[in-house]
């Protein structure tokens, strides 16, 4: 059965109107914009008609896979994934032969537009997934550059589980009288995800606590989030040194390594993934029922995206937050957690002994 965002979002997209759509993590936004765009493609016109941008290679690849799955019965449709790190020449050749849909990351796609290899003159719909991330920090310039290349009449659709007021306000610059699907803050967290904290007196206790949790971690698939790449590497080394089997990925790894790690995690060959916020958004691995915030994230939005890697599409999930109470570096963890609770009107309880029962 279609989810709420699909029931409302698909007809909105098919109407041709611009759209700004917020829906909780794991509720099927990808399906919404895949169905919403595929229906508008004319396969007899050998030009790019749909452009979907996402912030990471992994997410763009995942969207591409969903787009392929949905379009399998549309004869002659050509979908291309355009990513930094992939072969430039192959991108050029594929684009020059003509494609109907391009899914990609902003840098490579912009490059292709600027060099004239990707023409957007027949573009009908432009989708920005994780729109708040795409319109903030490092991406803004590239996204605005892409906007310069598209016509006035192109339908623009923004999606995210988190949309703050500045993003909504900023989107007015390029949305034309959009359909709005916006959640209240208290609706953003998913009821199916049980949230807990573990209080630790010292930062140095984190590793032992994680080892104690390890039996739980390996029951299902889990993701452990660290704030820094160096922590990912350090922790991975410690875990492997203690004979635990873990995968690890972060933004400074080579694209091929990142791809291989994601593939083994998706297939369930590895049950524990240690990572940064690189994998915080959008990644959909059905087996994940536990998220551990080894470090609490700096931003409230990141918290929601991280914990939303579990509890996909109505499944149960558990989030465990490490809160250091007596350490200069981490002073403020408890306060940060209270702020998150308050902001999203949610409850984060002390971890019970039977945490496995919540998964
Ligand atoms: N109508 C449906 N019925 C059953 N499963 C669905 C349906 N729609 C989507 N799903 C599944 O739900 C999962 C989550 O979907 P998706 O990744 O699109 O969520 P999302 O809203 O984009 O989440 P996020 O905010 O984390 O990016 C996927 O595994 C998808 O296959």
TrEMBL record:
UniProt-listed Enzyme Commission number(s): 3.6.4.13
Positions of the Helicase C-terminal domain: 192-359
Domain Helicase ATP-binding: residue ranges: 10-181
Keyword set includes Cell inner membrane: no
Matches recorded under InterPro entries: DEAD/DEAH_box_helicase_dom (IPR011545), Helicase_ATP-bd (IPR014001), Helicase_C-like (IPR001650), P-loop_NTPase (IPR027417), RNA-helicase_DEAD-box_CS (IPR000629)
Pfam (any one): Helicase_C
Top enzyme class: hydrolase
Substrates-to-products reaction catalysed: ATP + H2O = ADP + phosphate + H(+)
Keywords, sorted A to Z: ATP-binding, Helicase, Hydrolase, Initiation factor, Nucleotide-binding, Protein biosynthesis, RNA-binding
Protein's UniProt keywords contain Isomerase: no
GO molecular function: ATP binding; hydrolase activity; RNA binding; RNA helicase activity; translation initiation factor activity
Family, per entry: Belongs to the DEAD box helicase family.
Protein name: RNA helicase
Species this chain originates from: Hirondellea gigas
């Amino acid at each position: 059965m279609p989810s709420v965002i699909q029931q409302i979002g698909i007809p909105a997209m098919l109407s041709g109107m611009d759209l700004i759509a917020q829906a909780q993590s794991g509720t099927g936004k990808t399906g919404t914009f895949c169905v919403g765009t595929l229906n508008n493609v004319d396969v007899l016109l050998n030009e790019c008609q749909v452009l979907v941008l996402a912030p990471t290679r992994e997410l763009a690849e995942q969207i591409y896979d969903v787009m392929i799955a949905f379009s399998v019965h549309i004869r002659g449709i050509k979908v291309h994934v355009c990513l930094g790190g992939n072969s430039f020449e192959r991108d050029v050749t594929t684009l020059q032969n003509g494609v109907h849909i391009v899914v990609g990351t902003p840098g490579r796609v912009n490059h292709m537009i600027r060099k004239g290899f990707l023409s957007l003159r027949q573009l009908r719909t432009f989708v920005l997934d994780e729109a708040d991330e795409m319109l903030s920090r490092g991406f803004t310039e590239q996204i605005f550059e892409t906007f310069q290349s598209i016509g006035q009449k192109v339908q623009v659709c923004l999606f995210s589980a988190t949309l703050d007021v500045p993003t909504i306000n900023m989107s007015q610059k390029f949305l034309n009288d959009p359909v709005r699907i916006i959640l209240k803050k208290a609706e953003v967290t998913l009821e199916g995800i049980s949230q807990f904290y573990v209080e630790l007196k010292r930062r140095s206790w984190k590793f032992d606590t994680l080892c104690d949790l390890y039996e739980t971690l390996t029951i299902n698939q889990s993701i452990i989030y660290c704030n820094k790449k160096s922590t990912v590497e350090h922790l991975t080394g410690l875990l492997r040194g203690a004979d635990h089997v873990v995968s690890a990925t972060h933004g400074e790894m080579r694209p091929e390594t990142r791809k291989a790690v994601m593939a083994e995690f998706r297939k369930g060959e590895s049950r524990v993934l240690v990572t940064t916020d690189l994998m915080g958004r959008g990644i959909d691995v059905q087996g994940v029922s536990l998220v551990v915030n080894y470090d609490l994230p700096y931003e409230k939005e990141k918290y929601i995206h991280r914990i939303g890697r579990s509890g996909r599409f109505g499944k149960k999930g558990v989030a465990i937050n490490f809160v250091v109470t007596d350490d200069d570096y981490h002073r403020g963890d408890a306060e940060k957690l209270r702020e998150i609770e308050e902001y999203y009107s949610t409850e984060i309880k002390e971890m019970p002994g039977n945490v496995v029962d919540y998964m």
